[in-house]
Every structure is written in structure tokens, then in C-alpha cells.
Amino acid sequence: MNNNDNTPAAKLTFKEDLLKRIADTKTTRWWRFGIVAALFLAWVAWMGNWWFALLLILLFDIYITGYIPFTWWKKSKNKMVRSVMSWVDAIVYALILVYFVFAFVGQNYQIPTSSLEKTLLVGDYLWVNKMVYGPRVPMTPVHFPLVQNTFPIINTKSYLDNPQVSYRRLKGLRSVERGDIVVFNFPAGDSVLPKLADPGSTSPFRGIDYYSLEKIIGKQAINARKSEFGELMYRPVDRRDNYVKRCVGLPGEMIGIRDGVIYIDGKPLPQPENVQFVYWFQTKFPLLDAQWEEFEIAADDRKGADISTADIELLQANGFVAGDNTKPIYSAPLTEEMVQKIKSSPATVAIVKAPVRNDEYLFPDGISANWTHADYGELWIPKKGASITLTPTTWAIYNRAIRNYEGHHDAYLGEDGKVYIDGKPTSKYTFTMDYYFMMGDNRDNSLDSRYWGFVPEDHIVGTPMRVLISFDKDKNLLNGGIRWNRILKDANPDD
User: Fold this and answer.
1) Which residues, including other chains, have CB under 8 Å from residue 207's CB and lie 6 or more apart?
2) What is the pLDDT of residue 461?
3) What strand order describes the sheet that includes 254-258?
4) Rounded to 5 degrees, what angle do the CA atoms 436, 441, 445 make?
5) Confidence of residue 8 (pLDDT cuts 50, 70, 90)
6) What is the pLDDT of residue 10?
7) pLDDT tens for each residue of 319-378
């Protein structure tokens, strides 16, 4: 046999080629495959759907056999191609990892409003644990993992509407408990006017949700002002804006509020340590920034009191000096500790809890006409498997849950006073999900379940565990802009 001839080697069969590739694989590659495969199979078992295990074939090819040329660029003679593709490869792997971590483990979340002050502050960045209640399987699986629903600057959707996956939650450590601070998708965020959601909007209604705007100006006015509001669009459940509130009512409970105190099944709940109510207080002179800081009142809360003629008697009865413009009267949400600090200050003339104003847009429509945010209810919170008798009154309370959350979009109250579901008159309805009642600790300045109703279980995202870092937007970074004392602080100290 001539060893110098150029006769090509005999072509290997698929079986021979497969065995050769397996035999040529380095031990380190086998170890990496073993670790990834074990983690993947654990995830498949957690998902409870063994069809996903078929993807193990793809992982085997990526790490061992290499039939699919994922790394074709490594053999390119073009240096630029190798350089660019190495970055693309790293970014794709990172995004896949972030997608799975954010979907099944947890993610960061920023506190944008003061509804939970002083428990959570505006500018807090939280780590939200999704494994406590069990992670929700992505219902909109094709989405960019680093933004919730809209790409910044270009203001386009960061997800594809299709495919959509039915709600399913993996096994967690426990269910939602009373007192938990919970991150959830905003239930009233299914219908969105995109221009109002844009931070750059100049509309006086910027930031108001569609249903609140509908109550204020009506559907016809909204339709007539599309240049200002934009075209109405729908968002799927898991792409709705994230909200954070405290869970105060659990499925199957009766909730009511009397003079700011929450009652569950007729029994009062203890107030969280950091609960706040709006107070009026008068000082001997206008306060400077240093004095506001001493009272621990945020810049956005430093306001003059909106006092009517009817309030003068209340003020005088509590030691206020009426008609003296040199002694200003301020309004601010305060904890009990802050109230005592202001009372003991030599700058203070008097302090009193602000009177409760009538609320126009409380939930549910037509039932809450005589309620206020401080004297509210009572309402029964829906529970999975529990039934209600359908009447015009119960329909007014639970129709949104039945139609929007549980999928009976064509359900309606007929002129005969009967409720029709799936085209048939129905006297009873059995709920298929659990619901929760959420409220902010800043009780007089929180848009919560008192205004937009119950939170369905499929909207629950997770619970914040730690404050990662906190920024004070009213200060620069070199002068108190970073709240060092809040880094890694427990995000739910009152639980």
C-alpha cells in the first residue's frame, strides 16, 4: 500500500461518525454537559411536563456531538467575523440565562411611587423572589427579558402577542400570606392608552389608567382625543405593569375598613409599624429644607394643606391659629413616630389628622357611593371553588373578575335582571381562581384595591426580599443620593 497516495478515506456511516465524535469529546466537555443536563432535567421535573426533556437531544449535540454548527464562526478566516460573533454568542447566552432567571427565580424591581412609604421608599431597587409563591410559567413566552412591556426611547412593544400560554404556576414554598408585600401585574393594566403611558406625555391625564380615565371623561371623549391619548391597546397578563402593595385580605375573607383600620371577618387588624395617614400641622414659621429633613418628610410630600371654610372649626378646636399667614399650615403623610416628632418640636403650633374627603372613584362602581378610602366595605374576596349567587348587586362587584380575569368575556347582565354567561342565564357562579385585596401603607395616598378591585392569583409575580440599593432622587450621588443604610435591608420588615 502506498502511504503517499491521495486516496480519500472511506466515508464513515452515521453510527461510526457518532461514536467517533463521542469518543473524541474531552472529559471537561462531558462534565459540563452532565451539570447542565442535571439542572435541565430538574427544571423539567419542576415544570411537570416531560415533553421538554426532548430538548436534551439538542443539549447533547451542543456539548458532545456538534452536528448543528452553532460555532461555525470559530473556523472563519475573517478576524472581524470571529470577533463580532464571539460578542453575539456571549450576549445570546447571557440573554437566555437572564430570561430563565427572571422567569423562574426572581428579578430586580424599582419602587416608583410612595404608596408603601416608609416601608419601601421611592428609589429603592428590590430583589423580587418568584420562587416563594411558585414562579408563573411565562404566559407571553416571546419577550425581551430586560424590560416589562415597552422598549425605552423607541417606545415599541418588547414582546410578541402570540403565542399565548394558559396560566400555570409551578410549586412554590408557600401561598400568599396576610402582611406580605407582593409584586403583581396591575389588574387594570389590560387596556392601555400608549401616549398616556409615555413619561414624555404633556397630557394632564398622563399616567392615569384607562378605566380611571373612562370614569372621569367617558368613552366618547377618549375616542375623540386619540391624538392626545393614542390608540387603545391590550396587554397580556404577564406584560402588564408591575405594582407593589401589601396583602391585607385573603381569598374567602370579608374585608372592611373603619376609620382607617382594616377589619377581616369583623375583627380589626393591627396596623403595620410604618403605616401612614395624612396630617395637617402648623408651624411658627415657614420650614426650611433642614427642618423638613429632620421631620423625615420627602420633598414630594412637602405641601400646603388644602383647607376649606368648613375645616376652620376643626383646626381651632385642635389649637391651630387661624388667619395668621406667618404661621403656615402644611399637609403630609406621617407615621405615628413622625407625628410624635413633630408634636415635640418647638417649631410646631399644632397637629391634627386631616379629615377624610369623599372619594368619587372607589371600587366597585355603583356600590361604593357612600364609602371613602377610610370607611370602606364590606366586601367578600373571591376564593377558588367558592360560589356566589348572581344578582344585579353581586354582578356589580364581581363582573370584572368573571369577564376579564376568568375568561367569560361575553357575560352580561340582561334587562330582565338575570346574568348571562356563555349565552345562558345563570343564577350561580363558581370562581376558578383565588383573589387578594392589596393596599399601600401610605393609606391616604395609595391607589390600590379600594380603587381598582381584587388581584387575581394569575397576576401575582413574587415577593420582594431585599433592597439591593436605594437612590434619593432629591439629592446628588455625592451628597446623600445613595441611601447606604438601606442596602440589603429587609424589604418587608413589618411582615
Assistant:
1) 196, 197
2) 95
3) 267-268, 261-264, 254-258, 376-380
4) 105
5) low
6) 65
7) 998 778 889 999 999 999 999 999 999 999 999 999 987 777 899 988 887 899 999 989
What are the pLDDT digits (tens) for 137-163?
999 999 988 888 888 877 788 999 999
172 by Cβ neighbours in 10 Å (0-12 / 13-18 / 19+) ranks as: middle
- Going through 36-114 in order, the beta strands assigned E by DSSP cover 106-110
| Torsion on CA atoms 341, 469, 447, 438, rounded to nearest 10 | -100
Q: Is residue 288 over pLDDT 80?
A: yes
SS3 labels along 372-437: CCCCEEEEECCCCCCEEECCHHHHHHHHHHHHHHCCCCCCEECCCCCEEECCEEECEEECCCCEEE
Kindly tell me the burial class for residue 421, based on how many C-beta atoms sit within 10 Å of its own C-beta (0-12, 13-18, 19 or more): middle
d(CA 84, CA 347): 65
Spatial separation of the C-alpha atoms in residues 427 and 480, rounded to whole Å: 60
Show Cβ contacts of residue 415 under 8 Å, excluding neighbours closer than 6 positions: none
Q: Which three cell numbers stand for residue 384?
A: 377558588
* CB-CB contact of 315 with 329 (8 Å): yes
**pTM score, whole prediction:** 0.86
- Residue type, position 237, single letter: V
Provide the CB-side half-sphere exposure for 78 (13 A, CA).
7
Closest C-alpha to 426, from 439, 436, 413: 413
Q: Is the pLDDT of residue 1 over 70?
A: no
Beta bridge partners of 332: 279
Strands 419-421 and 348-353: what pairing?
unpaired
Is the pLDDT reported for residue 379 higher than 50?
yes
47, 137 Cβ separation under 8 angstroms: yes
pLDDT of residue 451 exceeding 80: yes
* Best CA proximity match to 380, nearest among 438, 454, 448, 440: 454
Bridge partners of residue 181, in order along the sequence: 246
The Cα 374–Cα 276 span in angstroms is 12
Contacts for 183 with CB less than 8 Å, ≥ 6 apart: 109, 126, 128, 242, 243, 244, 461, 462, 463, 464
The whole-angstrom separation of Cα 209 and Cα 229 is 11
pLDDT, tens only, 40-66 = 898 888 877 788 888 888 888 888 888
Average pLDDT over residues 478-488: 84
Round to whole Å and give the CA distance between 419 and 412. 6
Beta strand segments in 86-223, E: 106-110, 124-129, 181-185, 191-192
Nearest in space to 128 (alpha carbons), one of 146, 99, 105: 105
Higher pLDDT: 412 or 6? It is 412
| Torsion, Cα of 63, 69, 74, 77 (10° steps) | 160
Whole-number Å distance between alpha carbons of 87 and 52: 29
